């Protein structure tokens, strides 16, 4: 039988790390055009994209290492909700048609981290073990 008491915080941490790295990739695409430029995005970046990229750099890094995970995830969740309703929803009601599925998934995964914390291997555990 699987001991979820041992594995749940570790799997939460793996999800946190991978999600944080994927979120950081969006920032590197905006600022460094790495691994590629975002298709259709004008350069120089509009102010709203600079703000989004800055939020992605900070919150993505914090989430990846598990530092102030709950706060960073809450902010990132809000950014993804705003991105969905500003950029995707006006195109179509259906997420599969408006290409908003990644924004929805990021939003709710980050919302989960805001409630659950960073799990195992988070710097938050060194800062305040009760909040982990």
Automatic annotation (TrEMBL):
<keyword id="KW-1003">Cell membrane</keyword>
<feature type="transmembrane region" description="Helical">
    <location>
        <begin position="6"/>
        <end position="24"/>
    </location>
</feature>
<feature type="transmembrane region" description="Helical">
    <location>
        <begin position="103"/>
        <end position="123"/>
    </location>
</feature>
<dbReference type="InterPro" id="IPR032808">
    <property type="entry name" value="DoxX"/>
</dbReference>
<protein>
    <submittedName>
        <fullName>DoxX family protein</fullName>
    </submittedName>
</protein>
<keyword id="KW-0812">Transmembrane</keyword>
<comment type="similarity">
    <text>Belongs to the DoxX family.</text>
</comment>
<dbReference type="Pfam" id="PF07681">
    <property type="entry name" value="DoxX"/>
</dbReference>
<dbReference type="InterPro" id="IPR051907">
    <property type="entry name" value="DoxX-like_oxidoreductase"/>
</dbReference>
<keyword id="KW-1133">Transmembrane helix</keyword>
<feature type="transmembrane region" description="Helical">
    <location>
        <begin position="45"/>
        <end position="68"/>
    </location>
</feature>
<keyword id="KW-0472">Membrane</keyword>
């Amino acid at each position: 039988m699987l001991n979820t008491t041992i594995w749940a915080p570790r799997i939460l941490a793996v999800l946190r790390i991978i999600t944080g790295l994927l979120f950081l990739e969006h920032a590197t695409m905006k600022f460094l055009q790495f691994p590629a430029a975002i298709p259709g995005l004008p350069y120089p970046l509009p102010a709203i994209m600079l703000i989004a990229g800055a939020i992605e750099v900070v919150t993505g890094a914090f989430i990846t290492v598990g530092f102030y995970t709950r706060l960073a995830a809450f902010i990132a969740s809000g950014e993804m909700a705003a991105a969905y309703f500003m950029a995707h929803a006006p195109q179509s009601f259906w997420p599969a048609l408006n290409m908003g599925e990644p924004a929805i998934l990021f939003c709710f995964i980050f919302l989960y981290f805001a409630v659950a914390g960073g799990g195992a291997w988070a710097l938050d555990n060194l800062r305040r073990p009760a909040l982990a």
